[in-house]
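Regression test case RT-17, inverse folding.

Input:
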């Protein structure tokens, strides 16, 4: 609360900040101009005060150093003080006279007596509270006996002390150590027994005599033990604060908080990558020498002191990433060896290939390096298992939400590669696979979706996975036969045109074979003015159709058709001598996105339609291929050729 400390805000201000208004009693303590400016130089709204209070609260309840909360840090400090005090007492015990030994013996005997009374009281407490079995009663009695007046008889009269060559003080110290070990064993077993009793009825919250004994022991016998209850109370308060902040986030920012929580694990992985790369840099800015070379790394990893120091420092840097834990030096060694090997293969963005051209795959190789490094961090057994400190596990096991990242990132890498090599079909296929994988993960992690919704979405995802290659194949198809082969692979059986004429709603992939008459407009740099004309043209469009029955007594079937390509464009011909250029049979003329409203004639596969399409028209002018923009609106007639039915509702 001292304004001279230069703190922006402090804990005394937190209640006022969360309330959205300043407390006059608190602010009156700032009796200087700087104190005034601190609060009133820039006017703040109640919303801003609350935002500042929430931010301060998050800092209090979050982690500070090496994934530890404030309470965790304070507990470590308390343990350090205890170790220091124990070391001082041990030193004093070695150099001091009989007085300290007598005090130590008195302290151990007092401990034994309190432990005996705690065992007896604990038995009575649980017997009166929830009842105990015969075996449990015997267990309490045996522990009380082990801490009874005769507990140290065997130690005090051990024959070994009559034959061993030790001074009297050393014998006393050895006996004290054995007595402490015995009492610690009794205490540990009594704690376990007390916990088993409490587990019988988890709703019973009254403290047992053993709990009171442990609290008193910490406060009186353990150095600085009086601090522990206060730290425990602080940890409970911080835990409650964290729960309240989560409730606030869920109520007022559910989407944003979910995005933040989902992003945290992957941000931790990218931070680990950053720390790894920082540890592998050299002091040189010279091209090709910015990273440790394979030769230098081999010299470091020679099994000697240099290896231990290097891996220890690098593991320590990685352990600075929040909520990951301890790293395996063996795993880190494997990771950096693979990383350095990949670094040596990385090209410059301006690198040239064997023909002297700039390497078009330079970006892909750098993206591949980043993805492979990230996946190794995820999949190598690098971190200590929380419940088994002697073994190591991959991050994908410690954080299951990251288990799909390697597969998804590899799919993204495939997309980048195919785009670089201009294989558009495989690029689109890999992109569809990527999106379906992401959607499937979202589907599995969305508890709000009903079972029926999950089933429908799953069917759609599986369909896209199965037919993604078909959609991709259309992009790079160069001949009509290639398109025909693609359609044959997924087509519905003959007669499927009846489906849309008998079901209330039908969604599917459709093709049509027919002709249309309409008005077409060409525009482009080669034309002074737009060229409008009327013509008859063959029509073989392909796309998605949504069909439904309209009418109650005698319903008719109508479709809304969204076309992607029209193979009729291959055979479109304009005989007008004044038309710019000459007709050109070019597969690129089939790209004609458009729409149609269709009347599906009853008891037949025929339809009537009205619609339009847009796209390029390629013609030959002076032996050169030119492109004109085409818009066409038409009336059409033809045969319905369903390709694949996606959904029907009767």
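Golden output:
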């Amino acid at each position: 609360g001292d304004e001279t400390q230069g703190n922006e805000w402090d804990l005394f201000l937190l209640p006022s900040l969360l309330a959205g208004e300043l407390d006059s009693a608190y602010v009156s303590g700032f009796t200087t101009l700087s104190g005034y400016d601190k609060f009133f130089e820039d006017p703040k709204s109640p919303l801003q005060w609350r935002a500042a209070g929430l931010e301060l609260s998050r800092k209090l309840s979050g982690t500070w150093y090496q994934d530890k909360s404030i309470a965790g840090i304070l507990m470590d400090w308390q343990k350090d003080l205890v170790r220091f005090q124990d070391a001082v007492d041990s030193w004093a015990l070695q150099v001091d006279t009989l007085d300290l030994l007598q005090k130590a013996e008195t302290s151990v005997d007092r401990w034994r007596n309190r432990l005996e009374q705690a065992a007896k009281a604990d038995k009575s407490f649980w017997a009166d509270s929830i009842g105990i079995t015969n075996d449990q009663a015997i267990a309490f009695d045996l522990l009380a006996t082990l801490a009874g007046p005769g507990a140290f008889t065997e130690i005090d009269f051990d024959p070994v002390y009559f034959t061993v060559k030790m001074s009297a003080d050393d014998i006393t110290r050895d006996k004290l150590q054995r007595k402490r070990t015995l009492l610690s064993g009794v205490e540990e077993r009594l704690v376990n027994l007390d916990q088993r009793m409490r587990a019988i009825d988890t709703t019973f919250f009254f403290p047992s005599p053993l709990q009171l004994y442990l609290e008193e022991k910490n406060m009186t016998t353990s150095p600085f033990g009086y601090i522990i209850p206060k730290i425990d109370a602080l940890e409970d308060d911080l835990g409650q604060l964290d729960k309240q902040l989560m409730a606030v986030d869920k109520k007022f920012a559910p989407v944003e908080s979910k995005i933040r929580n989902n992003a945290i694990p992957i941000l931790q992985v990218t931070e680990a990558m950053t720390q790894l790369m920082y540890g592998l840099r050299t002091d040189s800015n010279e091209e090709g020498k910015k990273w440790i070379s394979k030769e230098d790394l081999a010299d470091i990893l020679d099994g000697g002191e240099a290896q231990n120091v290097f891996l220890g420092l690098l593991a320590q840097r990685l352990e600075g990433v929040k909520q990951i834990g301890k790293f395996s030096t063996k795993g880190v060694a494997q990771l950096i060896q693979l990383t350095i090997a990949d670094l040596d293969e990385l090209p410059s963005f301006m690198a040239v290939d064997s023909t002297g051209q700039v390497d078009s795959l330079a970006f892909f190789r750098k993206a591949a390096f980043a993805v492979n490094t990230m996946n190794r961090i995820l999949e190598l057994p690098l971190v200590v298992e929380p419940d088994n400190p002697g073994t190591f596990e991959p991050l994908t096991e410690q954080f299951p939400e990251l288990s799909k990242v390697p597969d998804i990132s590899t799919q993204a890498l495939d997309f980048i590669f195919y785009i670089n090599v201009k294989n558009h079909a495989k690029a689109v296929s890999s992109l569809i696979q990527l999106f379906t994988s992401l959607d499937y993960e979202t589907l599995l992690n969305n508890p709000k979706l009903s079972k029926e919704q999950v089933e429908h979405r799953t069917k759609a995802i599986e369909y896209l996975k199965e037919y993604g290659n078909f959609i991709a194949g259309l992009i790079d198809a160069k001949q009509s036969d290639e398109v025909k082969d693609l359609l044959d692979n997924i087509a519905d059986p003959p007669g499927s045109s009846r489906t849309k004429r008998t079901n209330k709603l039908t969604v599917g992939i459709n093709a049509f074979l027919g002709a249309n008459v309409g008005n077409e407009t060409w525009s482009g740099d080669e034309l002074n003015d737009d060229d409008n004309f009327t013509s008859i043209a063959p029509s073989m469009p392909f796309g998605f159709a949504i069909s439904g029955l309209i009418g109650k007594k005698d319903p008719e079937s109508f479709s809304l058709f969204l076309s992607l390509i029209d193979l009729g464009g291959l055979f479109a011909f304009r005989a007008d001598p004044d038309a710019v250029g000459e007709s050109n049979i070019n597969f690129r003329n089939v790209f004609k996105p458009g729409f149609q409203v269709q009347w599906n004639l009853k008891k037949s596969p025929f339809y009537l339609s009205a619609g339009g399409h847009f796209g390029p028209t390629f013609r030959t002018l002076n032996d050169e291929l030119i492109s004109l923009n085409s818009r066409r609106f038409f009336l059409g007639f033809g045969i319905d050729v369903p390709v694949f039915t996606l959904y029907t509702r009767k």
